[in-house]
Amino acid sequence: MQSQHLKTAICVNAATGKMGQQITHQIIESDKADLSAAFCRSGHPYFNKIVRGSTNLPYTNDLSAGLSMSQVVIDFSLPTVSLALIDKAIECKTPILIGTTGFSQEQFQLVEKASQQIPILWAPNTSIGVNVTISLIAKAAAQLGNQANVEIIESHHKHKVDAPSGTALKMGEAICEATHTSLRKRAVFQRHREKRQRKDDDIGFSVIRAGEIIGEHKVIFALDNEVINIEHKAQNRRCFAEGAVKAAIWLAKQKNGLYSMQDFIG
Ligand SMILES: NC(=O)c1ccc[n+]([C@@H]2O[C@H](COP(=O)([O-])OP(=O)(O)OC[C@H]3O[C@@H](n4cnc5c(N)ncnc54)[C@H](OP(=O)(O)O)[C@@H]3O)[C@@H](O)[C@H]2O)c1
Q1: Which of 103, 116, 204, 223 could form an S-S bond across to 108 if both were Cys, CB 3.0 to 4.6 Å?
Q2: Helix, strand counts (H, E) of the chain
Q3: Structural domain for 253, as ranges
Q4: pTM above 0.90, yes or no
Q5: What is the pLDDT of residues 197-235, one digit of tens each?
Q6: What ranges in 73-181 are assigned the alpha helix state H?
Q7: Side-chain-side CA neighbours of residue 2 (13 Å)
């Protein structure tokens, strides 16, 4: 019988990526989790090498073996890579936390469908601070109703390929949920083609890609005589890794279903 004091066995997919490395490090440092496997591509220079800081655990591409000995898997990669991992996770009945962003609607529907078979937490941002910020934004939107013009500005490093960020979209969705409106109808992603004034209920998205900015999000609620800014800045990638590991430990004990960071932080 499993003691509740035992550490949670967590494996990490795309463990050689920027986030993958932060997360393996976070697990190795944690007194609540054990690193059970670290996956990478067989062509990667780290393949078969020992994960730094671990007790002799090599990077591997044997997903089935790694997933079977884990209580949960964490994946920050690419949508196609995450979807292939989900198929394996279903076979091994391993819950999966997905931090990957940039899913198309069709790809996300596959994630939703898979969550009938295993617990899945999908989080475009696993930082606890960002998720508290989203709660604050939803509260502001509910209290302001349609009085405010809303703009969302996000900045990320030059390597990021999807835009606007999954977090910016999530913030837009939180505002629309709180005001019973639809982001599909309100979102404005570009303004240079159309010559028109903004509609009162437009939610404008602005995107900055530069240097090594980790991740910054600002939501502006502009009223006629005052402006509210709600802002979050990630200082480093540790905030995402820390939140992901805490949420993965929680997810390992959940039933099948699709969860968000909001479910975890309550
Ligand atoms: N949820 C959050 O809080 C959060 C925070 C930051 C980033 N993200 C998202 O997490 C994802 C990864 O970000 P990152 O900054 O870590 O990117 P990254 O450094 O480019 O890492 C991507 C990882 O995916 C692996 N990969 C790429 N193609 C693959 C394939 N065909 N098969 C297997 N593995 C493959 C890469 O392997 P190689 O090393 O072999 O190329 C690498 O390990 C992005 O979607 C990003 O937007 C989410």
Answers
A1: 103
A2: 9, 12
A3: 8-126+238-265
A4: no
A5: 999 999 999 999 999 999 999 999 999 999 999 999 999
A6: 79-92, 105-114, 128-144, 166-178
A7: 7
Tokens for 118, please give them: 């295993």
Q: What is the CATH number of the domain that holds 141?
A: 3.30.360.10
Q: With a 6 A CB cut-off, is 76 part of the ligand 1 pocket?
A: yes
Same domain, 104 and 178: no
**Residue 200 falls within a domain, yes or no?**
yes
- Ligand 1 centroid to residue 18 C-alpha, Å: 7
Same-domain status, 43 and 90: yes
**Structure tokens belonging to residue 224:** 């006629």
Q: Which residue has the tokens 């509740």?
A: 4
3-state secondary structure at position 257: strand
- Give the residue from 112, 113, 114, 72 showing the smallest Cα distance to 96: 72
71 lines ligand 1 (CB under 6 A): no
Is residue 1 a part of any domain in this protein?
Answer: no
Residues 6+ positions from 58 with CB-CB distance below 8 Å: 38, 48, 49, 50, 51
Q: Are residues 183 and 253 in the same domain?
A: no
Q: Distance from first CA to last CA of the chain, Å, rounded? A: 29
- Asked whether residue 110 falls in the same domain as residue 148, the answer is no
List, by residue number, the catalytic residues: 156, 160
With respect to residue 74, please indicate whether it lies within any of the assigned structural domains: yes
Considering the domain architecture, whether residues 119 and 155 belong to the same structural domain is answered as no
Q: What is the CATH number of the domain that holds 91?
A: 3.40.50.720
CA dihedral 209→212→214→220, nearest 10 degrees, is -40
The answer to whether the CB of 243 is under 6 A from ligand 1 is no
**pLDDT tens digits for 135-192?**
999 999 999 998 999 999 999 999 999 899 999 999 999 999 999 999 999 999 999 9
